[in-house]
What does this fold into?
Amino acid sequence: MINMKLFIKKHSNMIASLAMAFSFLAANSRCVCIFHQPEMPDDLRYLHKQ
It folds into this structure.
């Protein structure tokens, strides 16, 4: 458990950057499943390209 906390402290900037990149990609793409398109949260709408 201590190793995991140390890893998170050490690499928190990289983890946050990856999370932001994945949320940007998710905001600008469709769901792969034909019958399911989840509703986009309001916080992600400002990342959506128009």
